[in-house]
Each structure stands twice: as structure tokens, then as C-alpha cells.
Design goal:
Elements lengths: L1 H16 L3 H5 L3 E5 L2 E5 L8 E5 L2 E5 L8 E5 L2 E5 L9 E3 L2 E3 L5 E4 L5 H10 L1 E2 L2 E2 L1 E6 L5 E4 L4 E3 L5 H13 L8 E3 L20 E3 H10 L3 H10 L2 H12 L7 E3 L2 E5 H16 L5 H10 L12 E8 L2 E8 L5 E7 L9 H14 L1
Antiparallel strand pairs: 1-2, 3-4, 5-6, 7-8, 8-9, 10-11, 12-13, 12-21, 14-18, 15-16, 17-18, 19-20, 20-21
Length: 354
């Protein structure tokens, strides 16, 4: 019996030493190894090439290690972000990435005539609009009236909600937790929460959605009770490099120069492209907001509108084969009461980029 036991032990050890035994023992799915992330198939083997996972594409090299940065997959170049997710509709290193993720071509900057046309479009009834434009493919930008200060109104909701999402990404906020709505907290203006029954428990995730999709003022107030404005201010001043933080007194009393509004818009766009856990949730809400200054059938536009007593603005990330940022701001006395001036600028940019 002793010999049999020893023989069985020897046989078991031999099985464990067979090539591929460790791989067969691995569970299907992602695993972080010293060489990087790998994806195990059901049979334990490593996946190579392109992998579709949870709606996104990832590229794994011949050893099965997930790749980031530029990836050659014949016959095209692709770009995979820090999370490994393939990027679409972006400008990288002076090249632009199309809707299918393929490198679409070199992004030449706009010529003088095109810049002049966009500049001419940034006025209404003889009065200038505040404008920031940045071609994300070439990195070229245009800032008109950068020192002019604007009351942000609901435009501030986009960077604020982004900040809360970054907390959730880092495990510092639980979006499933609820906040109790009391009728005494009802805030007028846009939104749906103001019509909820007093005592309703609302998940943080829903409040974030309402704040963007319906520009919900009461939702923002409830979020502020859980995620203080002072903490958001500290974050956005540092992350966006704001030059005039003294203009951020409270959420409803924030007045900043256009150059700082542009900096916040760039920070939001960077988050949307980051591949972070909640970036797609914010992106979908910005694409689906009920309040839009720019309507277009040919492009997806992630945008946030703001209006208050003559202050009328939009900030937008326009997706397309050549994506770009737009910030358009107006002040009381401009005589602007509808969205036509915003579309006028958008159309001029689209024509310039063709």
C-alpha cells in the first residue's frame, strides 16, 4: 500500500508539472500578471488579438498581454488608452481616430481663411460671442474673449458630476447610496426631482443622471448635501488649472473667465476619453440631455447647456471623424434668446474641418 501511495503521489506531481497545467487551472476572464493583464479563455489558454469585452475592444499581443498606446493590427493603426480600451473619435499625437477606431489620417491645422470664417461666425447682431474651439486631432485652438467673465449657471453641472464619478471610480463614493428628498429642498427651474413625493429616497446614480439629462437643480442640491462644493472646487482648480478660483464662491455663485470654462471643458473631455469605470455613464447623459444648444444629425454631441437671466452658454465635445471642443458663452445684453448663434458657430466649424 505504501508503494501504491508513493506511485500516486509521483503521478500527481507529474501532472502538475505538465506544460499548460497552470493555465488550465486559471479561471476564465482577466488576470493581472507581472507582464501585464491577460485574458484566459474557458480552456485556460490566453486570448490573443482583438477581444470584445463589455461593449469595448481590447488588443492582446502574441503572448496574450493587453496593449496600450498605438497598436498595429494589419492593415491599420489603432490607439488603446491607459485602461486598454480602444479609443474612437479622438485626436492622438496629431492624428485623428475615426468612429471605427482606425487611424483616419493626419490632422492638418485649419488655414487662415478657415480661422477667419469661424471668428466671423462668433458674433450675433454685431456683438461678439465668447468662443473656445479646439481641434482634438491637431491640437489647434482658438480663444476669443478669454478674459471675459461669465456666470456659469448649469454649465457647472458637467464638471461637478464628473468629479462625483471620479470619486466612485476611486472607491470613495457609493452611487447606490440614497439621498432623502424633502419638499423643503425643492428648487425651482428645470428638473424632475422637484415633483417627487417628499421622503423619496433617490440613489446618487439617479441624481447624477437627472442633473445632466434634465439639468435638474434639485438633484444638484441633494448631491451637494453629500458631496460638498468646497471639495469639488479644490479638485477642479487643481485638475483643470483654473486661474481665477476666487470666482467660485458657491455652486450657484460661480463666475469665471472663458479661459477657465474652457479648461474645465477640456478636463471633462479627458474624463470621457479616459475609459474610467463611470465615464460612459456621463457620456451617455451628455449625449442625451434634454437641453441642447446644438442639434445635429450627422454628429454625436456631448453637451451641457446653461441659462440664467440672459447668461446663455453651451460647452460641447463634438464627436466625429475629427472631434473637437466648443465653448460658446454670451452675457446679458447680447440680445440672444435662442440657439441660432450657437448653431451658426457650429456650422462654421464643421465647414472649416471638411
Amino acid at each position: 500500500m505504501k508503494r501504491i501511495a508513493l506511485s500516486l503521489l509521483f503521478f500527481t506531481l507529474c501532472l502538475c508539472l505538465l506544460p499548460g497545467r497552470a493555465a488550465l487551472a486559471a479561471s476564465p476572464g482577466w488576470e493581472l500578471l507581472p507582464e501585464g493583464w491577460v485574458y484566459h479563455e474557458e480552456d485556460g489558454s490566453r486570448r490573443t488579438g482583438w477581444l470584445s469585452w463589455q461593449g469595448d475592444w481590447y488588443y492582446l499581443d502574441e503572448q496574450g498581454v493587453m496593449q496600450t498606446g498605438w497598436v498595429w493590427s494589419s492593415p491599420d493603426w489603432y490607439w488603446c488608452g491607459p485602461s486598454g480600451r480602444m479609443v474612437r473619435n479622438a485626436g492622438i499625437d496629431g492624428w485623428y481616430i475615426g468612429k471605427n477606431g482606425r487611424m483616419a489620417g493626419r490632422a492638418a491645422p485649419l488655414g487662415e481663411a478657415d480661422i477667419a470664417a469661424v471668428t466671423a461666425a462668433a458674433q450675433w447682431d454685431g456683438k461678439p460671442l465668447g468662443l473656445y474651439f479646439e481641434d482634438l486631432a491637431s491640437g489647434q485652438s482658438l480663444l476669443l474673449g478669454g478674459e471675459e467673465r461669465y456666470y456659469l449657471a448649469s454649465v457647472l453641472k458637467a464638471p461637478y458630476c464628473m468629479w462625483v464619478y471620479t470619486l466612485a471610480d476611486a472607491g470613495k463614493a457609493d452611487l447606490s447610496q440614497t439621498v432623502r428628498y424633502d419638499a423643503s429642498m425643492r428648487h425651482g427651474g428645470s428638473g424632475v426631482v422637484k415633483d417627487f413625493a417628499s421622503g423619496t429616497e433617490i440613489p446618487v446614480a439617479d441624481l447624477l443622471e437627472y442633473a445632466i439629462r434634465y439639468s435638474d437643480n434639485t438633484a444638484i442640491d441633494l448631491l451637494l448635501s453629500r458631496f460638498p462644493f468646497a471639495d469639488f472646487k479644490e479638485f477642479i482648480v487643481k485638475e483643470a488649472g483654473l486661474t481665477c478660483p476666487e470666482g467660485m464662491e458657491t455652486f450657484s455663485r460661480t463666475t469665471l473667465p472663458l479661459k477657465d470654462i474652457a479648461a474645465m471643458t477640456k478636463r471633462v473631455a479627458a474624463y470621457l476619453y479616459s475609459g474610467a469605470a463611470h465615464a460612459d455613464a456621463l457620456r451617455e447623459d451628455l449625449l442625451s440631455t434634454d437641453y441642447r444648444c446644438i442639434l445635429a444629425e450627422n454628429n454625436e454631441i456631448a453637451q451641457k447647456y446653461g441659462y440664467w437671466e440672459g447668461w446663455f452658454h453651451t460647452t460641447a465635445l463634438v464627436y466625429g471623424n475629427r472631434p473637437y471642443l466648443l465653448c460658446i458663452c454670451t452675457a446679458p445684453g447680447s440680445g440672444i434668446a435662442d440657439t441660432m448663434p450657437f448653431y451658426q458657430v457650429y456650422y462654421a466649424v464643421e465647414m472649416a474641418l471638411r
